[in-house]
Write a structure and sequence with these properties.
It is built from nine helices and 13 strands. With about 300 residues, it is an alpha+beta fold. The termini are far apart. The mean pLDDT is about 95. This is Protein kinase.
Length: about 300
């Protein structure tokens, strides 16, 4: 006999909701199968507010995101930025994008305590963080043969973020594991829109710097930080002694941005795009469209 779990119409205490329980919201029953997990930096963390579930009526697998309050601060060029979760914002974005390619899809419903519950479709593929590891070739071969195709698809993904900005929304947590790469030539898919931030003159600055991180990661075929550079002279040779503070990221101060110093075959035009995100930059991107136009110009120059 199958274990008869509890039925939850109030999802406030999401830690108590486990496998075999049912979340009843919006007139539909979702059988909980477990929690999603986040894999970063070799660590696996359960996300107890994000449930794997099955719609009992349709049999479809879903992801159920419950309301979880979280606030933290980050630093952007000496400016303290408050970041926080806003599940209602995510629900509104889901409604805005509808079935538009390039975004995860789903909808929001309220439970009996008015908690916002997001019911999401499964996005199949690998995240961009892991996708880069599939290019098992020397960097120079990757740079000339694979990167142009990666950049074309990244431009499509950046256009999706531009769509959010045009409609007054921020993604809020642009990073390489929040972009899913489907099989084939389908557009990259953005997931997880529930973070937001405040405290910057340009309301989209943190998103823009997140896109910069994606570019740095793609062009470098991974990140290269000062610890790696200074401790692995077999790979990086004398690079550590040739670097200045201006060569590193404004957002992540130990992350190398001036990749031309590591890979001198990177064209100045592309490296200049990256340097907009460095500590030595005098001019920064004000919009996603500016990045898109510069990337398109670089690809046209090849």
């Amino acid at each position: 006999m199958r274990f008869q779990g509890r039925v939850y119409t109030d999802t406030t205490e999401f830690f108590n909701i486990g496998p075999g329980d049912v979340i009843l919201v919006g007139g539909r029953r979702y059988l909980v199968k477990g929690e999603e997990r986040e894999y970063r930096f070799g660590i696996e963390d359960p996300k107890f507010w994000v449930k794997k579930a099955v719609d009992e009526q349709s049999g479809e697998r879903k992801i159920i995101k419950l309301s979880y309050a979280e606030t933290f601060f980050t630093d952007l060029g000496g400016v303290k930025v408050r970041c926080f979760r806003d599940p209602v914002k995510e629900g509104t974005i889901l409604e805005l994008v509808g079935d538009r390619p390039g975004f995860m899809h789903g909808f929001m419903r309220r439970d009996v305590r008015d908690n916002p519950v997001r019911i999401l479709e499964i996005v199949r593929g690998t995240n961009f963080l892991n996708y880069m590891e599939t290019f098992r070739m020397p960097h120079e071969k990757y740079f000339w043969e694979a990167l142009p195709g990666v950049l074309r698809r990244l431009i499509e993904a950046f256009q999706s973020i531009h769509f959010l900005h045009l409609n007054g929304f921020r993604h809020g947590d642009v990073r390489n594991d929040h972009v899913i790469v489907p099989r084939g030539d389908a557009p990259y898919v953005w997931i997880d829109f529930d973070y937001d931030f405040e405290g910057l003159d340009n309301p989209f600055s943190l998103d823009i710097f997140g896109l910069g991180n994606l570019l740095i990661y793609a062009v470098g075929k991974g990140f290269h930080d000062y610890y790696m550079i200074s401790n692995d002279t077999f790979i990086y040779k004398d690079l550590a002694g040739r670097l200045e503070k201006a060569d590193f990221s404004l957002l992540h101060t130990s992350r190398l941005v001036n990749l031309r110093k590591l890979y001198p075959y990177i064209p100045t035009m592309l490296n200049h795009i990256l340097l907009h995100f460095s500590r030595g930059a005098n001019v920064f991107y004000e919009s996603t469209q500016e990045i898109i136009e510069d990337l398109e110009g670089y690809l046209e120059s090849l």
